[in-house]
Each structure stands twice: as structure tokens, then as C-alpha cells.
Amino acid sequence: MKYRALGKTGLIISEVGFGCIPIIRLPADEAVRVLQHAYGQGITFYDTANAYRDSEAKIGMAFQGIRDKVILATKTMKRDAAGAREHLETSLRMLKTDYIDLFQLHQVAQEKDWQSITASGGALEAAIKAKEEGKVRHIGITSHNLSMAIKLMKTGIFETIMFPFNFIEDAAKEEMISLAQESKMAFIAMKPFAGGAIDNAALAFKFLRQYPEAIVIPGFDSVSSVDEVLSFYEKNNTFSEQDNAAIEQVRQKLGKQFCRRCEYCQPCPQGVAITPAMGYPIVAARMSPAVSVEFSKGPMESVPKCVECGVCINRCPYELPIPEILKRNYALYEQHKQA
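RE: above sequence
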């Protein structure tokens, strides 16, 4: 395992991190086993969120007694100071720690989110106060919207930016990665498998390893999945024309069905939570039906409000047939509710 600086934070982390959504579906003892195996293989950077059910609690159990050996990152989607502070205190309790190495304001994709976060009494205020108190060491931000992410990077407020990066969602390679390097800001690449849409791990990492500046945080749910990804880093990376052709085939297949979560379609005039509802099949593929239903209940119950007005289609830069996909996803959700 190689180690590197996390941007200008001064923290040193493993070149491969661990995205902790998948451990939601594991029994606690198995999750602890996978986490401890990853640590034994040299992984020291673990990313989770308050919203990821019992993920934080499982991490807390796994790393009791070695807290100073790991770098823990968590997130909040709250936009107000009180809500963000509540999430932080919950995270500290669940993770069994008195400080968070990296506290991130999550999924800031629209201007209204940014205005709420930076207003008096906003979430940024809570994060800064927590840093002054020593409960947070560094502050980062995440987004799925390219233009907003670049704006956030240019504020100079944050030390890390987390953004989707894989061979389907590769927009970050044009400006974000170089901007991060110029500003000494860590670029954390989430969703290396496009949230589960890419099933060829070797191909996914052949692409990603062309960009060593990116700190990749794949999700793991087994010892074997940890070992598989780490094995890619033991080999020389040669990216071929055949690899390009294979990637193009996957892109073509997913092009008109895959939601990039950019949120350009929002807000829906009828109140449909389009972005999370579009991603329901990916959530369902990573969790049991019962957990998927509970995890996605809010957005999925908004889908029947869709009147197929077409506003979202006109806004979507990828021209996705959003109402059609939502209907299909809702049918799957209903099926899971009956399971």
C-alpha cells in the first residue's frame, strides 16, 4: 500500500480508501471483519455519513483502540447549523470518537443549498465552530453537479472536494482535477463503479489509475472485494485501445438510462424527489429489499406525484426519459414493499 497527503490537510492516508455505504447490508460482526481486514491490508481512510444507517456504529466497533491509526470522514446533508450540529454529535457517538478527521457538507448541488449553508445559522457555521472546538479537524464538501462543484472549489473555504468519477461520469478530468492540484485541495473520487452500474472492476480501475491525483473510495462488502481492488494496485497499469472500446460499449448501453445525479432536473413542479428516485435500482442492488424500501421511502413515495409534464426532460442535459424511468423504478419499489 502506498500513502499520500490528503490535499493540504496534513493528513496522510492510504492511496485507496473505503466507502462505507455497502457495510449497511452486513451483519455487525461481518462488517467489523471486513473493516478490520481492510485496515490489515493497509487501508486507513474510511468515508461514511450520518445518513448511512448503522455504518458509523459498525466503524466505531471495528476501530476501537486504534482510533489514532485511521482517518475517519463523515458527512451531513443538513443545511442549517442546528441540524448539522445534531448530525455531528450523533456521528461522534456512533464512531466512538471525540473528533472527526474530515467533516463534509454533503451533496451541495444547487444554488439554494449553497445559500442555505452559508447563511447566518447555516451548516457551514456549525462546521467552523466544531473545528474551533476540536471536534472537527478539517472541513470538506461534496457535490454531483459539475458547475457547482467548481464554484465550491474556488471559494477557498474547503480542504477537500468529493465528486463522482468513473469512466461513465468523467467530467472531473477536464477541469476539477487540475483545479484541485493548483489549490492543493484533495480530490476524492466517489462512486468508482458509478453507484453499481459498472460491473467490470478491473476496467473501472484501469481507467481510474490514469488519474493518480484522485483519491478513490470504492465501497466494499466483503473481504474478497477488498482484496480484488487492492490487487489492481499491485500491477502496472497499461490502458489500451481495447480498454477504450470496452468502455465505449458500456457508455453506449447506459447512456439513455443512467442518471448522473447532477440535479439539473430539479426542482420538480410537483415535488417529486427525482434524483434519489432515479437511483433506486442501484440502491436496491446494494441492499436487501426491506433495507432498500426503508432507505428510499421518502423519495419513492413522492413518485406518484409525477404528472409527466416534461419539465425534467427539457432540463436534463443527458435527455433521459425521466418519467418513464421513474415509473419503472416505482414498480420495483412496490414489488420490494410486498417482499
